[in-house]
């Protein structure tokens, strides 16, 4: 029997870049969806397509058994993901695994959580074999602070709230298990790390791993916004501030066992993450 073909969107991104090798290990035929023909994902089939270009997406979906749907945050991300799901159904794709976000809810005050909820609802309505993954804050998002962490500090408007942050490699492993396993139809899995950690605890883990003093400073939302104005577009900065307000309210602290349940391995802890990524936090 032929091995199933899985289309991975965002194949060069945070989760996708770990999902491609995870699927290969499981013997799946991977088709990586990429936008730049000059930067193919090595070792697998590549399909050059852009979510803004439906014809290219339809071509990428040809002959695909299952699709992993992920796109970066963007003002039109919900529309792009909804159209992708429609095109996948039209192409006869059997299964969609959707990357959403922890606490996605249509009435959330966080815009990213509202748009993820819109996409979830649409995919559910399509009637395909589908599974939703709702990961919490990515540990790898800390790499966005690497510049100041290398100078001994980082700041965010989160106070002392704990978040059950997850390593993106665990999201990839969970996605690979769902894409290749059975019994996941119609299920929604919230994916978290093994414990909820405060940013002070994250600073401690980074200090231990790098052998340097790294401090976390709570920053008022206004100060955080001022520091990033001009570096991020307004929609993204406003959304990020909403995300942090949600974390600061303690709304992202629950711990779920889904990673271990799906993969058979415990979710990676922040201490291990800090050790493995230490070099990225010490570069000048
Ligand atoms: N960051 C977090 O803590 C967190 C937590 C929970 C959920 N999430 C969710 O995770 C998702 C991914 O976020 P991320 O920031 O980590 O992004 P990401 O997955 O790294 O996204 C970048 C990927 O998307 C591809 N891409 C960009 N624009 C595209 C387009 N128009 N058509 C096709 N592919 C395109 C990029 O390909 P190229 O190589 O061609 O640029 C790259 O592979 C978002 O939905 C976010 O809400 C994030």
Automatic annotation (TrEMBL):
Domain of life, source organism: Bacteria
SUPFAM superfamilies in the cross-refs: NAD(P)-binding Rossmann-fold domains (SSF51735)
One Pfam family, short name: NmrA
Gene3D superfamilies linked to this entry: NAD(P)-binding Rossmann-like Domain, UDP-galactose 4-epimerase, domain 1
InterPro entries noted in UniProt: Ergot_Alk_Oxidoreductase, NAD(P)-bd_dom_sf, NmrA-like
Location of the NmrA-like domain: 4-225
Record-given protein name: Uncharacterized protein YbjT (DUF2867 family)
Taxonomic source organism: Murinocardiopsis flavida
């Amino acid at each position: 029997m032929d091995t199933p073909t899985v289309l991975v969107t965002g194949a060069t991104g945070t989760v996708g870049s770990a999902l491609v090798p995870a699927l290969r290990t499981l013997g799946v035929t991977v088709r990586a969806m990429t936008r730049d023909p000059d930067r193919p994902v090595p070792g697998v089939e590549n399909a050059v397509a852009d979510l803004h270009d439906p014809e290219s997406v339809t071509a990428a979906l040809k002959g695909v058994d299952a699709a992993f749907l992920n796109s970066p945050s963007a003002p039109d991300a919900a529309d792009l993901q909804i159209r992708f799901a429609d095109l996948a159904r039209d192409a006869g794709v059997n299964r969609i695994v959707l990357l959403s976000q922890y606490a996605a809810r249509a009435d959330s005050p966080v815009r990213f959580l509202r748009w993820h909820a819109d996409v979830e609802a649409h995919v559910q309505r399509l009637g395909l074999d589908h599974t939703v993954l709702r990961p919490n804050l990515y540990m790898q998002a800390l790499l966005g602070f690497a510049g100041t962490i290398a100078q001994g500090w980082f700041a965010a408007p989160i106070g002392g709230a704990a978040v059950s942050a997850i390593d993106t490699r665990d999201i990839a492993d969970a996605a690979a298990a769902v894409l290749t396993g059975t019994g996941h139809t119609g299920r929604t899995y919230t994916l978290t790390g093994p414990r909820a950690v405060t940013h002070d605890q994250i600073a401690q883990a980074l200090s231990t791993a790098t052998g340097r003093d790294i401090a976390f400073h709570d920053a008022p939302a206004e100060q955080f916004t001022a520091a990033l104005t001009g570096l991020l577009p307004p929609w993204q900065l406003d959304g990020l501030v909403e995300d942090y307000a949600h974390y600061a309210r303690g709304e992202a602290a629950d711990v779920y066992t889904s990673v271990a349940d799906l993969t058979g391995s415990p979710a990676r802890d922040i201490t291990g993450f800090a050790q493995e990524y230490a070099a990225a936090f010490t570069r000048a």
